[in-house]
Amino acid sequence: MIQHGPVFVQSCGTKSHPDYFSALLCVFYVIIEQFEVHAMNENIAKKNEALAQTVIKGLESRNMTGFYAASKEDALKTALSLIPENSTIAMGGCTSATEIGLIDALKNGKYNYIDRAQMEPRASLMAAYDADIFLASANAMTSDGEIVNIDGNANRVSCIAQGPKRVVFIVGMNKICADLDSAIKRARNIAAPANAQRFNIDTPCKKTGKCFDCKSPDTICCQFLITRFSKHPGRINVILVNDNLGF
Ligand code: SF4
User: Fold this and answer.
1) Least C-beta-crowded within 10 Å: which of 136, 204, 208, 240?
2) Cα 203 to averaged position of ligand 1 atoms, centre (Å)
3) Cβ contacts of residue 146 below 8 Å, gap of 6+?
4) Looking at the domain assignment, is residue 193 inside a domain?
5) Cα(184) to centroid of ligand 1, in Å?
6) If you take atom 4 of ligand 1, which residue's CA is the nearest one?
7) Would you say the CB of residue 184 lies under 6 angstroms from ligand 1?
């Protein structure tokens, strides 16, 4: 039906089917086609929800906590429930937090948001280590709850590993991979080359869109962090959002 629908609609645009019956059939095909696309998206959403529950079990087995959010709006509510008012909050380049509206909510609410752009780098790093909350995303995650991140300056991965009292990850379901090998491949071949586009750097991935395992002085891939277990209950929290977030 999907294949035939557009062809039929195109023919309706000509004078080859000028009668009402053809016009009606056109409308019918368009409706069916939209229904099928919608049904397909619904199935992906259902699959993502089921997969999120698998990831949450994996996180629990690693002394970490997972939350499922059906939408960006749900994700924002869950994130704010994990961040008490008057907390000090730092962020490590988390596009996903911006996409769900969390950064605006923190800047406009009763929080002490550490704005790195307004601080001297060393001072902002020290403030981030001492923060109550650290916001991050993942470059990739496995369905068993391992979190993979690559960093250039290591401010992000070091704060994930140690320092801030609580880490809140905002992770779109587009980041979930079957196993650690595919998660590392995603981090290196999708997340890092996309991240490279944000900077004025000279790396092979910026020109080709693919990782060359470079040793360029401009490389943004200096440190790899795999978070596979937390010694501290309640410190690592992952909000899995049924949407495509970040890269
Ligand atoms: S080419 Fe270099 S900078 Fe780019 S993703 Fe690969 S290792 Fe990182």
Assistant:
1) 208
2) 6
3) 58, 62, 180, 183, 226, 227, 228
4) yes
5) 13
6) 205
7) no
Q: What is the mean pLDDT of each run of 10 residues along the chain (247 residues)?
A: 40 50 65 59 95 98 98 98 98 92 96 91 94 97 98 95 98 98 98 95 96 97 98 97 96
In b/e form, how buried is each residue of 19-47, taking b as 16+ CB within 10 angstroms?
eeeeeeebeebeeebeeeeeeeeeeeeee
Q: Residue 237: which of 130, 111, 137 has the closest Cα?
A: 137
Structural domain range at position 169: 37-241
Q: Does any domain span residue 1?
A: no
Query: Is residue 95 domain-resident?
Result: yes
Ligand 1 in reach of 157 Cβ (< 6 A): no
Based on the structure, what is the number of domains in the chain? 1
Please, are residues 157 and 169 in contact by the beta-carbon 8 Å criterion?
Answer: no
pLDDT of residue 243: 96
pLDDT confidence of residue 218? 97
Number of Cβ within a 10 Å radius of residue 201: 16
Global pTM value: 0.85
Any atom of ligand 1 within 6 Å of the Cβ of 190? no
Residue whose CA lies nearest to ligand 1 atom number 7: 213
Residue closest via CA to ligand 1's atom 2 equals 214
**Token pair of 3 as six digits:** 């294949």
